[in-house]
Amino acid sequence: MDPTPQATLHRWNDIPVDQLSDTIGRRLITGNDMMLAHVYLKKGAIVPRHFHVNEQITYILEGALRFQIGEGEGEEIIVRAGEVLHIPSNVPHAAEALEDTLDVDIFSPPRQDWLDGSDAYLRQK
């Protein structure tokens, strides 16, 4: 019989920042079926249009992001501190930081491209 899974305590300050570009960095915590990320975006940072099989919840702690959701120009949604945006699986989206922003992203299942570094759309060095 397998031993009982153990709880794991994480401290954000102990996790190194993965600096993806001059304007975007992140820290990741991954479980078996979900991923939690702190994403740091400087004002003007752009997350290019993309989509993924992962369901996404974005909670803005500080700042504001302007999202374009859907095909083409899509729907514009501005998400500010204290607000949460749910993005279903496979829905195209892009974002722009209207201010210096800290967001918490939750993904299920975990983003494999974020874990293995194959997320070239974000790595604009």
From TrEMBL:
It holds the Pfam family Cupin_2. CDD domains: cupin_KdgF (cd02238). It comes from Hymenobacter ginkgonis. This is Cupin domain-containing protein. The lineage of its organism: Bacteria, Pseudomonadati, Bacteroidota, Cytophagia, Cytophagales. Residues 38-103 form the Cupin type-2 domain. It comes from the Bacteria. InterPro entries: Bacilysin_H2HPP_isomerase, Cupin_2, KdgF, RmlC-like_jellyroll, RmlC_Cupin_sf. SUPFAM superfamilies: RmlC-like cupins.
